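agent> fetching stored inputs for the iron/sulfur cluster docking request
agent> found them:
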Amino acid sequence: MVDYARGNMAVAHNGNLTNAAFLREELEQIGAIFQSTTDSEVIIHLISRSRGASFTDSVIDALRQVVGAYSVAITNGDVIVAARDPLGFRPLWLGRLNNAFIVASETCALDIIDAEWIREVEPGEVVTIDRDGLRSVKPFKPAVPKQCLFEFVYVARPDSYIFGQGVDEVRKNMGRELARQAPADADIVMAVPDSSNPAALGYAHESGLPFEVGFIRNHYVGRTFIEPEQGIRDFGVKIKLNPSRSAVAGKRIILVDDSIVRGTTAPKIIKMLRRTGARSIHFRVASPRIINSCHYGIDTPNREKLIAHKSSVEEIRKFLDVDSLEYLELPALLRATGGNPDHFCTACFTGNYPTPVPEDYETKPRNHRHVDHSTAQYER
Ligand code: SF4
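agent> prediction call returned; pasting tokens
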């Protein structure tokens, strides 16, 4: 929130601008003083300097200058302007509650307040909401959408609809695809809790093997990531999750995870399963290897910290100490979405970034969305 010459303004921004550093430098050259390091502040400065006839015109003027990912809701108190970048990296929804319109990234936010779902804001669409109702324009050059594929893998909540699909169903499809691509001789299918549950269920349905709740979550302890020392954090994982001996001991297990980022969580989970008497562990990952950082707002680390950037599948298998390891192939993941495969960003899996990205990106500090609704709290 800021005060500026024409009143005040609040900005909510999901995404990351890839030309923010360049714009910031330009703005500083002409006297802008920044209060934070967030790229969202660049949008504020651009709006406040715009000579647009209306608030919406000023927002459009600002958004024409930025590159990268943004789903934004910006208000001056009288008007809300909601916009999605032309490639539509991040989701954005419109809802209604009585006479009020709601803007949210995911439908689960609308459900919480009993709001009605209206529709998704389209890539490149700018919606103005004021006392006269809702108006929409598409002021940017049309482009082929590049929606974030990783939203379906991990980021979005399973009870949401995004990009025209139910997230839970897409994750089950990923599991089904994985079962067809990478079967194994096993007794049970288990998930690395909780974000992998739908993919593990899909794997179980397709393979005909029973799905077991192999880990029990302790809901009565604090968050592990706030513990100060590594030793305490490691112990924290054990406090949070404990394998169920009757489900696991003596079993040949297919363990399904939605993704492997740093590779810091999986070894702990696998060690716990081995100690509990698992006979064999076949690790199945419901997405391809993550080999590149995200430049569009997801909090993946610099690529040197990504386990798949520096190690082969066989090296990772040995490191994890599992009997077999397979990742879902990209065409299968795209099929699982039920959408047009050309309409997704796949850059963290392929390195094909849909916009130019700064060369020094890997070394500069960033402001990214940190996702912690599932196992992120165990330092993925
Ligand atoms: S790089 Fe990966 S996480 Fe980032 S927007 Fe593209 S698909 Fe999503």
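agent> quick read of the result: The chain has a mean pLDDT of 91.
agent> awaiting further instructions
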